[in-house]
């Protein structure tokens, strides 16, 4: 399990949008099957492009994921604090996004 990305985070506020990296791709990969179940689609391509994060009683992540060609989805994930097991949970998915649509928190 990876440690949460904590640099430059403000407690309660969302960070600016950043480029995804190996760690954020790993988080996305951990919830891929849940995302596919929620959207009822199988993604051959599933690549994190951008992300935002938020410190709460754990960590919220919001990802822009390329799922093939011009198709993107937004995926929101919660990661518990390491002292609480660090588990990951899918909080929401939004389909029919484009590369240019900004990442905004998903309200459930």
From TrEMBL:
From the Swiss-Prot or TrEMBL record, state where the protein is found. Cytoplasm
- Quote the gene name from the UniProt entry: CSTA
A Gene Ontology molecular-function term?
A: cysteine-type endopeptidase inhibitor activity
Q: Which residues form the Cystatin domain?
A: 9-106
- Alphabetical UniProt keywords: Cytoplasm, Immunity, Protease inhibitor, Thiol protease inhibitor
Q: Which GO terms describe its cellular component?
A: cytosol
Q: Carries keyword RNA-binding?
A: no
Which biological process terms from the Gene Ontology are attached to this UniProt entry?
cellular response to bacterial lipoprotein; immune system process
Can you tell me where the transmembrane regions are?
none
Q: What is the lineage of its organism?
A: Eukaryota, Metazoa, Chordata, Craniata, Vertebrata
Pfam families listed in its UniProt record: Cystatin
Q: What is this protein called in UniProt?
A: Cystatin-B
Primary localization class, coarse: cytoplasm
Kindly give the InterPro entries that the UniProt entry links to this protein.
Cystatin_dom, Cystatin_sf, Prot_inh_stefin
What organism is recorded for this protein?
Sparus aurata (Gilthead sea bream)
- Sequence similarity: Belongs to the cystatin family.
* Keyword Cytoplasm annotated: yes
